[in-house]
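We treat protein structure as text, and this decision shapes the records that our systems exchange. The tokens are whole numbers drawn from a learned vocabulary of local backbone shapes. One such record is reproduced below, unchanged from the form in which we store it:
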Amino acid sequence: MAKVAIVMGSDSDLKKMEKAAQLLEEMDITYEMRIISAHRTPEVAKEFAATARERGVQVIIAGAGMAAHLAGAMAAHTHLPIIGVPLSGSPLAGQDALLATVQMPPGVPVATMAIDGSRNAAVFACQILALQDKEIERRLLEFRQNMAAGVQEKDKKLKK
């Protein structure tokens, strides 16, 4: 059973959204990945979001570019946490997707990451899951310690 769902609006988004999947794999967290369009397959998007909890999903990461309505469409049909990832690729370099993702109406929130920030979306999903899962919390803390150690090692090399 997948704890996290990663959805994207197009197969052209896959390379950017795979970074979320890679981090979840590093953290040993199960996930499912789908291509679902808020505009081209709205009924599929609705059904996916509405039934996510029944499938064991606890967090949805939704990446889309341009009009970027996928995260909002997911949020409209579930009470699960939605993490939006605005994607670049448009003439506006993702600024359009950022604004479309972050400007949700009151009561229908979407946590919004940086443009192309799917890896951080996965980290944030881990933080949400860690609230109820001590093993994920342990792995998350180890992940952060490893990041800090990496910075310290780079600093040592720079000082030499």
Residues 68 and 97 are 5 Å apart (CA to CA).
